[in-house]
Amino acid sequence: MIWQFVINGLITGILYSLLAIGFALVYNTTRIFHIAAAGLYVFAAYVLWWTHLQLNTPLLYGAIISIVATIILSCFIEWSVYRPLKKRGASLNLMMIASIGVMTILVNAIALAFGHEAKFVNTVMQQTYELGTIIITTPQLFQIFVGAPILAISVLLLKYTSYGRRLRAISEDETLYSTLGYNVKWTRYFVFAVSGCFIAIASCLSAYDVGIGPDVGMNFLINAMVAMMIGGMGRIAPCIAGGLLLGVLQSWAVS
User: Fold this and answer.
1) Is 184 helix (H, G, I), strand (E, B) or coil?
2) Is the dihedral angle over the CA atoms 193, 157, 239, 250 positive or is it negative?
3) Surface-to-core class of residue 131, CB atoms within 10 Å of its CB (0-12 exposed, 13-18 middle, 19+ buried)
4) What is the 3-state secondary structure of 113-138?
5) What pLDDT digit, counting tens, does each position of 75-121 carry?
């Protein structure tokens, strides 16, 4: 029985880790406490639900549409909210308040459009798989075989590619980064695009498993932020360890 709780916790931890990386990318690079990520999380889930069930789009296509739409919205938030505030010399506290405002607007707009009741992307009984005493559902398999490789690839890309080195450089000294000839504006857009991608993937995987509601984003983001803090502020790879550990601890706590 204990291994069932461990596996469930690790799978939940994968989702926490994906969202934690999406949040940490923005925080580490810009120092903005990106609370709007909770709104993006809810937005991605509802785009998946709407495209898959209301437009009868195949699940994979619905997920792709959701990811692309979330990336666009994430970059739009940078363009319309954070960047103008940065140009005016706004403090990070003011940007955090603006981010909370964006999250509030997104969540309430979605609730107004679709209602507060829970909705489910997965409307059929899913097959389960038994490995000894461990039972794994189909949505959990998706989370393992989609989420885990993405986490592994992200660590390698952020650590060993030129873009990964650029993100570390801009987080250390944005002025020096610009002096060396790099475009700060487009690097920030890249950060928000990648962040939106991670947020959307976590949202789609979770929505397919447990359903969606307008209020799920903030609860999930809090867990992701805790995972980031466990791993260490300012670091990406330890977010994964923090997310997995938090998932296992929560699974044991409710056992």
Assistant:
1) helix
2) positive
3) exposed
4) HHCCCCECCCCCCCCEEEECCEEEEH
5) 999 999 999 999 998 999 999 999 999 999 999 999 999 988 888 88
Single out the residue of 233, 193, 167, 169 nearest to residue 33, CA to CA. Answer: 233
Give strand ranges (E) for 113-217.
128-131, 134-137
Q: Measure the CA–CA gap between 222 and 134, rounded to whole angstroms.
A: 28
**C-alpha dist (Å) from residue 156 to 2, 162, 182, 231:** 32, 11, 22, 17
Q: What is the C-alpha to C-alpha distance for residues 244 and 185, in angstroms, rounded to an integer?
A: 33
Q: Residue type for 168, please? A: R
Ranges of residues in the chain whose predicted pLDDT is under 50: none
pLDDT at 230: 82
For residue 159, give both structure tokens. 């650590």
Structure tokens at 32: 């903005």
Q: What is the pLDDT of residue 255?
A: 60
Q: What is the pLDDT of residues 143-163, one digit of tens each?
A: 999 999 999 998 888 878 877
Contacts of 13 (CB under 8 A, 6+ apart): 227, 243, 244, 245, 246, 247, 248
β-bridge partners, 134 = 131
Distance between CA atoms of 67 and 65, rounded to whole angstroms? 6
Name, in order, each residue with C-beta under 8 angstroms of 158's C-beta and a sequence gap of 6 or more: 164, 167, 236, 237
3-state DSSP of 54-122: HCCCCHHHHHHHHHHHHHHHHHHHHHHHHHHHHHCCCCHHHHHHHHHHHHHHHHHHHHHHHCCCCECCC
